[in-house]
Amino acid sequence: MSARDVLEHLQRLGMSGYEAKAYVALVGAGRPVNGYEVAKRSGVPRSTVYETLGKLVARGAAYELRGSSDATEYLPLPPEALLDRMRREFDGSVAVLRSALPAVAAAPEGHLIHGLKDAEAMLDRAEDVIAGARRGLVMSVWPEEMRRLREAVVDAAERDVEVSVVSFGEDADPFGGGRPGAVYQHKYSAPEAVLEDLGYRLLVVVGDRREAVVGGFGEGAAWGIYTADPAVALMAAEYVRQDIALQILADRVGAGEIDRLFATDPGLLRLLGRARS
């Protein structure tokens, strides 16, 4: 991880840009240093470095020391201790807000639905849905997106959420084949054929049949929606479950028999969009 990444994550945890730079400078010094040296090491302007250090001291991330010449020097709270403190404060705030926010929230006029304009927004929202699942998680996913979502899916399984995944390729199995009955590799229609037919990789993530992310990835673009409409979430979940059921049937009776049924039944043929004109 680069120094820039460290600064970015410290800011996500509540530090200002200058505070993060000053704290990293203190940690990197390995000894007590004065404000002038912190400014020199960090790039924080000398005109604001003492104000910035004062804020670090106020939040408990640094300590003031008096040197032999009565000059003020600064020592950082060790990183492990700082992170433990931040975690406690964060967890405490989340616990308070979990009960306080619903009390002040207005009842929605309708079920929430909003567009997702790019890959980052799609995957962030998908992670939210996975993290929020308490009973069931249903997904249709390709390896490219599973690389980002794998940890969240494994976490869901570890908290006893029932996971059902259609994977387009072996690399889309978050459990590496170690969880039978949870992941079904899409083989009846080869992933290459599906991609050629659709023109994009479809992502479907449904949590507890109450919220869903549905969207596509292709040609450097991504688009989709998040919805908390239970009817839409149910339809998305059933779409994936039917894909799973078809794959199980193909495994049991053979892909050739499934093809024969489709070829000889006009109704099935029409549903596949292959009916003759």
From TrEMBL:
<feature type="domain" description="Transcription regulator TrmB C-terminal">
    <location>
        <begin position="117"/>
        <end position="176"/>
    </location>
</feature>
<protein>
    <submittedName>
        <fullName>Sugar-specific transcriptional regulator TrmB</fullName>
    </submittedName>
</protein>
<dbReference type="InterPro" id="IPR036390">
    <property type="entry name" value="WH_DNA-bd_sf"/>
</dbReference>
<dbReference type="InterPro" id="IPR002831">
    <property type="entry name" value="Tscrpt_reg_TrmB_N"/>
</dbReference>
<dbReference type="InterPro" id="IPR051797">
    <property type="entry name" value="TrmB-like"/>
</dbReference>
<dbReference type="InterPro" id="IPR036388">
    <property type="entry name" value="WH-like_DNA-bd_sf"/>
</dbReference>
<dbReference type="InterPro" id="IPR021586">
    <property type="entry name" value="Tscrpt_reg_TrmB_C"/>
</dbReference>
<dbReference type="Pfam" id="PF01978">
    <property type="entry name" value="TrmB"/>
</dbReference>
<feature type="domain" description="Transcription regulator TrmB N-terminal">
    <location>
        <begin position="10"/>
        <end position="80"/>
    </location>
</feature>
<dbReference type="Pfam" id="PF11495">
    <property type="entry name" value="Regulator_TrmB"/>
</dbReference>
